[in-house]
Design goal:
The chain is mostly helical. Helix content is 47%, strand content 0%. It contains 6 helices and no strands. Helix 1 crosses helix 6. The longest helix has 14 residues. The chain binds zinc ion. This is Jg26028 protein.
Length: 108
């Protein structure tokens, strides 16, 4: 997979919730607990991108806010979401949706 295809898969996974966030893993019966590993709230895509206090600094550096509203999310570009996701490092150790390789081995 090329790097751009990898990025598209990553953004699609984040924005649809079909990715390695615990809420989705619970629905898929891969994990039993939908809680965020960082703060114990349910780990939805919205929680990850907009709310989780663990990533407040990343939001601040990218957008000047420590949490995002629904309106803020609507104004983010695909590039913004991609940058946020990479800066958090949340998926570095995991797998991309629909693939069997760790992120670090994709597109090199
Ligand atoms: Zn959290």
């Amino acid at each position: 997979m090329s790097r751009s295809r990898t990025n598209i898969a990553l953004v699609a996974g984040i924005t649809t919730g079909h990715c390695l966030l615990y809420r989705h893993l619970t629905v898929m019966r891969i994990a039993e607990d939908p809680s965020c590993p960082e703060c114990d709230e349910m780990e939805t895509s919205f929680h990850f991108i907009a709310e989780c206090p663990m990533y407040a600094m990343v939001r601040w550096e990218l957008q000047g806010k420590d949490s995002f509203s629904v309106e803020d999310l609507a104004n983010l570009s695909i590039g913004d979401i991609l940058r946020f996701t990479k800066e958090t490092g949340r998926f570095q150790a995991g797998m991309l949706p629909g693939t069997s390789k760790p992120v670090s081995q994709q597109g090199e």
